[in-house]
Amino acid sequence: MTVRVLLTDDDALVRAGLALMLGGSPDIAVVGEATNGREAVDRVRAGGIDVVLMDIRMPVMDGIAATAAVLALPEPPKVIVLTTFDADEYVVRALAAGANGFLLKDTAPADIVDAVSRVVAGEPMLSPAITEQLIRQVTDAAPDARADIAQRRIACLTDREREVAVAVGRGSSNAEIAAALHMSIATVKAHISRIFTKLDATNRVQVAITMYEAELL
């Protein structure tokens, strides 16, 4: 199935570059462009979009507000926030708005294509640099007690679940985890679902933070 992508950025050169990057994949089709968040919301409302690549700083409506508006629609597409700004506040705000991924614009073309495929498959995607920043922001706030709390939280995980959780924390995809641990992708997904439940996590970043605090990363 072809993944239909909407490019949202107020810079025409950026949109052209993204279209060129994504156009090399036979499984992805750029089906629309928007120059601001309001246009993106209107285009998504019209239907036929699977993934939105969303800039943060735009006129009329910024990418954070647009992400929240898009994801509030019935049967919304996935949203990957793509920006030159890597400050922690943007990461936190984008994730709080419900973004499925957060990548920097200097991310390698192959990794952007991979990110689109991964979010469609239900895997939230953050660049390793962004994940490290977010983990550092959270863990630096209250260092000492967090290790004990995290270790108590992961005590409920089986050995296999712990292996999967560590791999998630390192940014591995479901397919990479399956290959490394010699299990099917369906089994990996089942383990991740149980890990989310046991750790009371809603995304992979939260799992990564817990494993980092437990000193397993």
From TrEMBL:
It comes from Aeromicrobium wangtongii. Residues 150-216 form the HTH luxR-type domain. CDD domains: LuxR_C_like, REC_NarL-like. The keyword Heme does not apply. PROSITE patterns: HTH_LUXR_1, HTH_LUXR_2, RESPONSE_REGULATORY. The keyword DNA-binding applies. SMART domains: HTH_LUXR, REC. This is Response regulator transcription factor. Gene3D superfamilies: 3.40.50.2300. The lineage of its organism: Bacteria, Bacillati, Actinomycetota, Actinomycetes, Propionibacteriales. InterPro entries: CheY-like_superfamily, NreC/VraR/RcsB-like_REC, Sig_transdc_resp-reg_C-effctor, Sig_transdc_resp-reg_receiver, Tscrpt_reg_LuxR_C, WalR-like. Transmembrane segments: none annotated. Keywords: DNA-binding, Phosphoprotein, Transcription, Transcription regulation. Residues 4-120 form the Response regulatory domain. The modification 4-aspartylphosphate is found at D55.
